[in-house]
Amino acid sequence: xxxxxxxxxxxxxxxxxxxxxxxxxxxxxxxxxxxxxxxxxxxxxxxxxxxxxxxxxxxxxxxxxxxxxxxxxxxxxxxxxxxxxxxxxxxxxxxxxxxxxxxxxxxxxxxxxxxxxxxxxxxxxxxxxxxxxxxxxxxxxxxxxxxxxxxxxxxxxxxxxxxxxxxxxxxxxxxxxxxxxxxxxxxxxxxxxxxxxxxxxxxxxxxxxxxxxxxxxxxxxxxxxxxxxxxxxxxxxxxxxxxxxxxxxxxxxxxxxxxxxxxxxxxxxxxxxxxxxxxxxxxxxxxxxxxxxxxxxxxxxxxxxxxxxxxxxxxxxxxxxxxxxxxxxxxxxxxxxxxxxxxxxxxxxxxxxxxxxxxxxxxxxxxxxxxxxxxxxxxxxxxxxxxxxxxxxxxxxxxxxxxxxxxxxxxxxxxxxxxxxxxxxxxxxxxxxxxxxxxxxxxxxxxxxxxxxxxxxxxxxxxxxxxxxxxxxxxxxxxxxxxxxxxxxxxxxxxxxxxxxxxxxxxx
Length: 508
Prior knowledge:
The chain has six helices and 30 strands. The chain is mostly beta strands. It has a four-stranded antiparallel sheet with strand order 3-30-29-28, with no helix packed on it. A hairpin with a 4-residue loop joins strand 10 (264-268) and strand 11.
C-alpha cells in the first residue's frame, strides 16, 4: 500500500513557496558585505602582476626627489637607484617612464596604454610619498596615467600609434572606420541555352570530375548533360512527381535525388538504376545534401523536419525536429560537423550533427528562408530571403552584414572562391554581389524561351561548375542557361559604381 499524500492547506503551501523564494533571492537584497582591506590588497597585487608584470621591475625617474622608488607592490622597501644593476642607469627613451638617466635594455619591454581598470589599480599601488610630492606628475588619476603613459607615444601624430613588434618600435597607422572599396569582378554574360526538359527545371548538381552535370525537373525526370557541349547524355526515370533536389557523391559513383513524391533515391551510375530508397519523410522532400567527409545524406521536407541517413544501411540516423514550417534548404558543414537548415518559418538553424540538437537558431530574417550557401574558403555562409540576403559566421551564426536590393523571393544562392555571390529569384532576376563588401555589381534578367510566358522566368537553382568559370541556372521556362565571364570587359569599360554612403560595420 502506498502512503497517503499528506494534505496541507493552501495558506501553508503558499507560505512555503514564499519562504523558498525569499531564501533563494535573499542574497541579492541583503546588505553588501564590508570589504576586507587585506583581501583587497591581495586582489590589487594579483591584478597588477597579471596586467603589468612586464614593467613592474622598471625604475621611476628622479625629478627633485631624494630617492627613486621601484614600482613594486610586493616589496615593503624600495631600493636605492645606486644599488641597481648598471644597465638600469644608461640613457635612452622608454615610453614609461621617460627622461634622462633611463634607457632601453634587451630585457626592457614597451609599456602599452593601460585599461581603465588597470589605471585605477596602478594609482592605488603608487607610494604615498610620490603622490604627495608631485601630484602633476604621478599616476594618481586616470587622466594622469593616460597623459604620462609614454612620451614616445605623446609625440606622435594622432593617426599613428606605437606598436611592439617583437622588441622593436614600429609606427602603424590607426585604421579609420571606412567602407572598403569593392573588388572589381568582370560581368557575366549568357552564352548557352540548353533545352530538353518538359517542365520547370528545379535542381542542378555538377559531378566532381567537372565532365557533366545533372538536373531534376517537374517533368519527373533526371537528365545528365555534357558540360562542355551541352548535349544530353542520359535520362533517368523513376520519380512520380517533381524532382526537387539532386546531388552527386564525390566518394562513390552514386547520384542522389529527392522529390515531391516523398521519395529519396540512390542511383548507381555504373548501372543507371536505383539501388536504395530512404523511407521516412511524411511529405514532399525539398532539398538534400551530402556530407563532405562522412557517408551520410541529409534531406529536408515539407513535414518540418530534416533527416540524416546512413547511405549504406539506409537507416534514419537522426530526425532533426524543431522547425515549425517547411524546411526548404539544407547544407552540411565539414568542420564542426554541423548541418544548416533554412525554413519557411523564417529561421535558420545550426544543428550539431553528433548530438542531433540545435546549436543556434537565427531569427533575423522576416520572411521565408529558401536558400543557404557556404563560402568555399571562408568560415562563413549566406542565406537568402525576400527581405534581405544575410551573411553569417560559423560556428555560432554570428551576423556579419546585410546585402539589400534583391526584392523578390530568393530561390537559390551560389558563391565562388573569387567572392562572387549569385542570387536567383522567382521573378527571373539574377543579382551578382561582391562577397566582402556586399556591393551589387551586376543584375541580369535573361529573356524567357520563345513560346513561354513572361511570368515563367523564375530561377529555381544555380551553381558554379568546379572550375568556377561557368554559372549554370535552372529556370521556369524549362531551360538550363549557362553564363560565363565577359573576357572583353575591363575596369575601364565596366567601372565599379561605388558610393560609400553609410559605413558598414561588420559584426565579428
